[in-house]
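Example 3.2
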Amino acid sequence: MDWTLEVVVVPVTDIDRSKAFYAEQLGFNVDHDTRVSDEVRFVQLTPPGSGCSIVLGPQEMEPGSLKGLQLVVADINAARAQLVERGVAASEVQVFAPEGPRLARDGDDLNNVGFAYFDDPDGNSWAVQQITSRATERLVTDAYR
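Structure, written as tokens:
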């Protein structure tokens, strides 16, 4: 049986502001914007190419309390440039190297270890990771089965 993660609820204070951030600045697709009542509204957005969406709306979590959401891209430098071009305060590209995290340098192999970070307007934090190949991961996983 497959178990797929389809939706993550992102706690926000202002749905319109957050919808604009995710749709206009990040480029997420707006799947629907549904008002159930005067007090309840759900906005679902999906990152381009993703099988998992986010929902902005009523939630039990404190706005800004969601940490560690992660997006995966094939080119972290291009993704970061796109974020900055769209007005998102994204960190410099970092590498998780044997000596610890450091700024990326020309010539670094960023596959699996290149990251950039940003927060939404409420402080929910996101990581963007470069993954261009998962073959090594599959080989390691298969070796332990």
